[in-house]
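FAD dependent oxidoreductase structure dump, as promised
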Amino acid sequence: MSNMDSTQAAPAHYSVIVVGAGQAGLSVSHFLQHANIDHLVLEKHTVTHTWRTQRWDTFCLVTPNWQCALPGHTYEGADPHGFMKKDEIIEYLDAFIAKVNAPVLEDAAVSRVTRDAHGRYFVKSTRGEFTADQIVVASGGYHTPIVPRMAERLPQRIAQMQSSEYRNADTLPPGAVLVVGSGQSGAQIAEDLHLSGRKVHLAVGEAPRCARFYRGRDVVDWLADMRYYDMPVTDHPLREGVRDNTNHYVTGRDGGRDIDLRRFALEGMELFGRLEDYRDGRLRFAANLRANLDDADDTYNRINASIDGFIAKHGIEAPSPVRYEPLWQPQDERVELDLHASGITSIVWCIGFTPDFGWLDAPVFNGRGYPSHMRGVTAVPGLYFVGLPWLHTWGSGRFSGVARDAQYVVDAICAERASAPDRASIACA
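structure tokens r here:
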């Protein structure tokens, strides 16, 4: 990686500026280099910062290693059906960074991007100002942690953190922990605390779940054979609405397994419905725990049933099908919990993030602040997005699908440059 120094005399203008140096931005740089297009990658922190600083200690991939397929850098280790741990993920990324050797300017937080009447982009950052013919936004879609306003009314004695800040149980004060949210992060953090011996209270949301292994194989392997991961968002039953879905909870920990919240309840974890409020020293929950658990299990069984259909259709030999039956049901849902009497001393908020593209002055955003695009190509000439969830397929925001998206966007950049010869100072190879 060429980590440029802002004190050096660098050209003010680039054909393309890429905002963000995670796996998406680096993938774009890989293809821009192959197309012989000069460019600069601006990174707010350091390259692949999120993977290094916003993951807990026992974090591991929830998809098998064989799905790690960054451009020119597929997984070549000895455990393709395993799940890389945090240090292994960083090692994999470090090797990718070295291969790409992208022209990155770190600690360059972009504060404003505008476009003039002639179609040239002006970029203002903490490391200087630049101009570009085209902009690729590769900063992801998870920017601002969601913490409800009720958090302001909780006692000062309660330690609060967001999922991106959690590292391990020992960093929390002694006592019980309330985990709010049961998506991928919430379910895995609750498990981590539970396995450490902490008393855990979990506010369960509407996240679905899936099996880790079914009928002799990883569910991901079955879904890959069924071409699920090649389905474009335009063919998904929910269309663009799938981008708002919470990811299914499952884990790759200890070789991979299901996360069954009902089993945790049998082992002493206390489950509640959605957290709604805090008043007069008491936490208040919706009476929807049973419904949320049942809905998650329905999704689990529905995915397995689709695999059953695929096996039957193709006459594949596999172990017999099994339907999941609940291990535990809440008899009387508790909708209130005395904060002091519960012994809760800390809360981990695991309810997601909101996008923040306030620095980008372009008429491409919908009412939720999400950009409108087709496979990352916007209606504004020269403006592209990469690395967003379901940008094109399920793998768009993951190691498995970002290469395909980056290649498509760079091809679009080349096509646009070919149609505007005055901009194509360097032709695409």
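The chain has two domains: 2-143+355-419, 147-349.
lmk if u need the other ones
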